[in-house]
């Protein structure tokens, strides 16, 4: 599938490059052609419109420009064509001035009254021949001719270069298209591999509770005469596995919704302090059960813009982990306050800590530092992935500091609402203003 996408991307990229190439060269060609003919057309139009014939003579132009490539012809009513004055007196004067310095056998370019004249002098080896113009000629129209061989030649060469350049650059364009497609495929490939990994992890995670349920039910069926009391450990195992599966599926649903962008939060101003209080109160019982002390420092009425249920879920994940990974006799501390224009929630414990190389991976889906410990404690490896998503959805960030064997501290910071007047500030914050 990825190979097909790569081919399709290469074709699309190459096609776009070709379009860009031909658009660019077409604009270049059009501009060149416009520039080449523009001045000639203007000069020809000027010669045609200014041409006047009076008293049997051509009236000289007010500001004559000698353009050796432009010929003005007259057409008579009876269809004869005549070159009235090959070079008028005025022009001849100019020509004489321009060519005054040229030596026989020389080829040179001269500037004269803002124009460049390329000229050449060649020795004359033939007898002199003078042309006598026709009389009795009634003018019907003026024909202006300019030799544009060089322009046409230049444009033809240019067109040839564009086409042959396009053909030659096919290889380069396809190669560039391929390399770009390959570059664009990196994130697609990474997402694809991640997705494959995710699917295989999900299958694996679902298989173990299902196997547990199946084998316990099968064993119960082997002894149909046994009472519920006798089989209660199996029933309990089935219930535990079902619970784990339900939790896993709920987590997967949350992540699937988060991936598809469908899981929108219902945001509003919420009292974060109250949410932390509520979640902490649910964990009081764990504290008793696991012989873990719980220290709570919550500044009053810290308000943020957020989704109450999701923030509740986030705190449950963090506190659940803190209790799960802290042995008896340890301590879990929860704090909520405002610092540096952020609402901070900190959950720390004096538990087992995280191996340093695992720290960057703990937010990955299905990552579990100690698989058996986490699984036994009902962990799915999805908790922190969901926690991270919730924090990011609130525009906040989650950091972790951990030291192996000493404990772990998760610090979550949320931006404060724009117009927070300062509820939840500590006395020091209030003094700072
Ligand atoms: P689960 O807890 O279900 O295994 P999580 O995504 O919540 O999955 O956590 C991923 C991993 O991060 C855990 O398996 C554990 O290795 C590590 N971890 C998370 N919180 C703590 C903590 N408070 N102390 C030590 N390790 C932790």
Automatic annotation (TrEMBL):
GO terms, molecular function: phosphorelay sensor kinase activity
The Histidine kinase domain, residue ranges: 201-418
CDD domains hit by this protein: HATPase, HisKA
Domain of life: Bacteria
SUPFAM superfamilies given in the database record: ATPase domain of HSP90 chaperone/DNA topoisomerase II/histidine kinase (SSF55874), Homodimeric domain of signal transducing histidine kinase (SSF47384)
Transmembrane parts of this sequence: 12-32, 159-181
Protein's cellular compartments: Membrane
Keywords annotated in UniProt: Kinase, Membrane, Phosphoprotein, Transferase, Transmembrane, Transmembrane helix, Two-component regulatory system
Catalyzed reactions: ATP + protein L-histidine = ADP + protein N-phospho-L-histidine
Coarse class of the protein's main subcellular location: membrane
GO (cellular component) term, any one: membrane
InterPro entries in UniProt: HATPase_C_sf, HATPase_dom, His_kinase_dom, HisK_dim/P_dom, HisK_dim/P_sf, Sensor_HK_Regulatory, Sig_transdc_His_kin-like_C
UniProt keyword Glycoprotein present: no
Enzyme nomenclature, EC number: 2.7.13.3
Protein name: histidine kinase
Organism, as annotated: Sporomusa termitida
Lineage of source species: Bacteria, Bacillati, Bacillota, Negativicutes, Selenomonadales
């Amino acid at each position: 599938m990825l190979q097909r996408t790569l081919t399709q991307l290469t074709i699309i990229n190459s096609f776009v490059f070709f379009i860009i190439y031909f658009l660019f060269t077409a604009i270049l060609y059009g501009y060149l052609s416009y520039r080449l003919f523009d001045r000639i057309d203007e000069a020809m139009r000027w010669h045609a419109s200014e041409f006047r014939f009076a008293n049997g003579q051509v009236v000289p132009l007010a500001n004559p420009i000698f353009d050796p490539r432009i010929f003005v012809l007259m057409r008579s009513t009876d269809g004869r064509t005549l070159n009235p004055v090959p070079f008028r007196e005025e022009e001849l004067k100019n020509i004489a001035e321009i060519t005054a310095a040229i030596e026989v056998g020389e080829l040179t370019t001269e500037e004269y009254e803002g124009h460049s004249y390329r000229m050449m002098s060649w020795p004359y080896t033939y007898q002199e021949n003078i042309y006598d113009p026709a009389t009795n000629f009634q003018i019907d129209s003026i024909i202006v001719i300019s030799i544009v061989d060089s322009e046409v030649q230049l444009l033809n060469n240019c067109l040839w270069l564009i086409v042959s350049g396009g053909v030659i650059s096919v290889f380069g364009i396809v190669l560039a298209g391929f390399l770009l497609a390959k570059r664009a495929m990196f994130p697609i490939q990474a997402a694809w591999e991640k997705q494959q990994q995710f699917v295989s992890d999900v299958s694996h995670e679902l298989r173990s509770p299902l196997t547990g349920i199946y084998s316990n039910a099968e064993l119960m069926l082997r002894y149909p005469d046994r009472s519920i009391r006798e089989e209660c450990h199996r029933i309990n195992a089935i219930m535990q596995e079902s619970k784990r599966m339900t939790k896993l599926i709920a987590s997967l649903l949350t992540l699937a919704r988060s991936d598809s962008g469908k899981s929108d939060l219902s945001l509003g101003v919420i009292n974060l302090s109250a949410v932390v209080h509520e979640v902490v109160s649910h964990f009081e019982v764990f504290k008793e059960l696991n012989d873990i002390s719980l220290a709570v420092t919550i500044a009053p009425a810290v308000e943020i813009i957020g989704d109450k249920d999701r923030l509740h879920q986030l705190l449950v994940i963090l506190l659940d982990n803190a209790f799960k990974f802290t042995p008896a006799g340890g301590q879990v501390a929860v704090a909520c306050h405002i610092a540096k224009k952020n609402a901070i929630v900190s959950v720390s414990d004096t538990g087992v800590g995280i191996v340093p190389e695992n720290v960057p991976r703990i937010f990955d889906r299905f990552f579990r530092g100690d698989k058996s410990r986490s699984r036994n404690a009902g962990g799915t490896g999805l908790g922190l992935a969901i926690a991270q998503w919730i924090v990011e959805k609130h525009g906040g960030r989650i950091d972790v500091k951990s030291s192996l064997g000493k404990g772990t501290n998760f610090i979550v910071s949320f931006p404060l609402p724009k117009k927070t007047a300062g509820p939840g500030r500590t006395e020091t914050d209030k003094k700072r203003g």
